[in-house]
Amino acid sequence: MTPPSTAALLSLAGAAWLCLAAVATWLGLSRTIRARRVEADARAVAGLLEAAPTVPMLIYPDGRIEASPRAAAWLGLPEAPRALSDLLDGGFDRETVDHLEGVLIASLDTGKRFTEYVALPGSMRVVCFAGGPYSAPGVSDRAVLIWLTDVSGSSEQIDRLSAETRRLSAALDGLSTLIEAAPFPMWYRGPDLHLALVNSAFVRAVEAENAAEVVRRGMELIETDSEGTAQSVARSTLAHGHISTRTAPAIITGERRMMRVVDVPVGSIGVAGFAMDVQELEDARADLVRFVRAQRDMLDRLSAGVAQFGPDQGLVFYNRYFMRLFDLDPDWLSDRPEFDRILERMREAQRAPEIRDFPSWRSERRGWFHAPEPVEETWQLPGGTHLRVVGQPLPDGGLLLIFEDRTEHLQLASARDTLLRVRAATFENLFEAIGVFAADGRLHLWNNRFREIWGLEEAALVQHPRVDMLVQALAPKLQDPSRAGMIRELVRTATIDRQQRSGRIALNDGRHFEFAAVPLPDGNALFTLLDITASRGIEEALRERNDALEQANSLKNAFVSSMSYELRVPLTSIAGFAEMLAAGYAGDLPAPAREYVDAILSAVTRLSALMGDALDLSQSEAGALPLEMETVNVGDLVREASRSIADPANAAGLTVAIDVTSGDETVLGDKRRLRQVMDHLLRNSVAYTTAGGRILVRSRVAGRFAEIVVSDNGRGIPDHKTTRIFDRLSRESTGEGEPAGRRGGGVGLPLSRQLVEAHGGTIRMESEIGRGTSVFVLLPLGREAEAA
């Protein structure tokens, strides 16, 4: 029997063994599971390596290679290489193999990784050898792990990208150079919208030292404009992602200039911009605006209609004459009607030509917008108006139309042609000889009379000879050949000195001519010859007759004066004896004898007055009539003369009225002679006014003259006789039924005119048949006469 302690020990040992067996079993199961897991992982890694786009390869320092069979296909070998020398058998050249060996040794020595690209021989494939030192756990040998990657496609892309990179780099360098050399400011703003880069032009514009100073100080080219600050505009440009363009003033090198500023968003990395000086453009635009305004003001004042159409064929401008010419409403024109509508409105107003096919005609005129050169034509309107129409195509595709009213011009041209024909006919049929010499002395025009007088041939004249040659041909035809040079001098004086001269010349055939050289407005000279041979004879006869008449007039005046004095003696004797008979010195006379004596006394008195008037008239015409000048009151003169004629007028059944408004105005003259004038005028009124009539004598002041008017309501005198009634011894009849012995005016009225004119005055008569006669006498007032 086993003791309890032994059993207990055995039980403990068994339990311990059982525990160790359980632990060993658990450890075995765990290792089996781990091994299976590692095996699964190894198979997975092997699968991954087989499916990977790269192939691993271990190369040891002695040149041995451990590689997957796939490496043979990648390297173009029949089997996987076992040493570097196998690459030479596969067609790799020695240089490439040595280079790879050197790279491997350097990697083992330095521990650096490497990447080499090797082109496979005989193909376009490129394999990338990338790797570095490798040591496996528990393995003492060093090796280099290389991963083979087929980069044939990537190589082409890399080459292309490299070339593109080089091209872009060169372009960037060129662009940078261009930006730096640009004559206008350029800049770049970073994401914070602060200046990051500027070019030299920007530096010069803000007068800074260099670009770094500009960036550091944030010197803006344009601080603020109508759209805000430069940064706010850039922020808006970046936010909206579109290019911003504006015009703003800037101070460039101390001068205010207008700049065209452009901000360009550059993705999300910032904003680039540039500014161009457009001051000259703005000045040019302002000049253009002023020029267009001045041109339109000028066109608005033209006497021709002007209309301008834009590229859209809409009316953009018209002047006032165009509106009046075609009777168009200005409100309608302000709506910029199209070309076709204006033509239609012209047709409706009958201010367009009458065309049967109006649409075709309008279409042809519309083609003027694209005409290669200006078009000109004439429009005849229904009312007889003729328009000259010029269509000028404009560079912008528009059209400028000019309408010139040629109606008056055509009428004037027609009238001018008619006048030219009339002038030519008149020129050829004038009695005068006419020649027109040009400013160079050549005969320009002549008529038939000119050629006939000088006996010149037409063939010689059509050569337009100079005046020097004409003088040589004309000299033998003159009575005094030396005077031929006068013709040349006359032409020179008229053409060069612009002076007119005239005179007379005689030909050797006895004819006499009156010549004249007249300068013409066009610089030519008109030379005329008038045949005065007959008038010269008549002039001589008239001169002789005039001398005879002057002598006869002198003898007449002397006879009248002599007879006046000679007749006074017997007339005085007749008057004395008649007065004695009337006084009864020869005894009492019977009634018939007394009537005869009274008639003799009346006739003697009238005859004495007539002889005195005739003597005064003769002396006045001879300028020998004495005048005793004194101050004469006009009112008193009129009153005295009117009172003296009152009795004879009343006896004839007439009424005498006086109207004196001159007051105390006086004239300087001979009172007796002035009274003589009044007596003659009043006696004529009494003699030629029928019974029951009225005689009015009035005086007034008319400016610087005293006016005396004697008027009656008698029979009157015809107008054509009033101008001759004051002629000396005029025998003009004043009308039917005038008193016997009063035919004609006698010497009273002519003497009155002589006396009034001797006092510096005037006398005139106004008369109307059946209404009466008025005689107006104007005498200078006393102060005016003294001044004269």
From TrEMBL:
<dbReference type="Pfam" id="PF00512">
    <property type="entry name" value="HisKA"/>
</dbReference>
<dbReference type="Pfam" id="PF12860">
    <property type="entry name" value="PAS_7"/>
</dbReference>
<keyword id="KW-0418">Kinase</keyword>
<feature type="region of interest" description="Disordered">
    <location>
        <begin position="730"/>
        <end position="749"/>
    </location>
</feature>
<dbReference type="InterPro" id="IPR003661">
    <property type="entry name" value="HisK_dim/P_dom"/>
</dbReference>
<keyword id="KW-0808">Transferase</keyword>
<feature type="domain" description="Histidine kinase">
    <location>
        <begin position="562"/>
        <end position="783"/>
    </location>
</feature>
<dbReference type="InterPro" id="IPR004358">
    <property type="entry name" value="Sig_transdc_His_kin-like_C"/>
</dbReference>
<dbReference type="InterPro" id="IPR000014">
    <property type="entry name" value="PAS"/>
</dbReference>
<dbReference type="InterPro" id="IPR036097">
    <property type="entry name" value="HisK_dim/P_sf"/>
</dbReference>
<dbReference type="InterPro" id="IPR035965">
    <property type="entry name" value="PAS-like_dom_sf"/>
</dbReference>
<dbReference type="Pfam" id="PF02518">
    <property type="entry name" value="HATPase_c"/>
</dbReference>
<keyword id="KW-0597">Phosphoprotein</keyword>
<dbReference type="InterPro" id="IPR005467">
    <property type="entry name" value="His_kinase_dom"/>
</dbReference>
<protein>
    <recommendedName>
        <fullName>histidine kinase</fullName>
        <ecNumber>2.7.13.3</ecNumber>
    </recommendedName>
</protein>
<dbReference type="InterPro" id="IPR036890">
    <property type="entry name" value="HATPase_C_sf"/>
</dbReference>
<dbReference type="InterPro" id="IPR003594">
    <property type="entry name" value="HATPase_dom"/>
</dbReference>
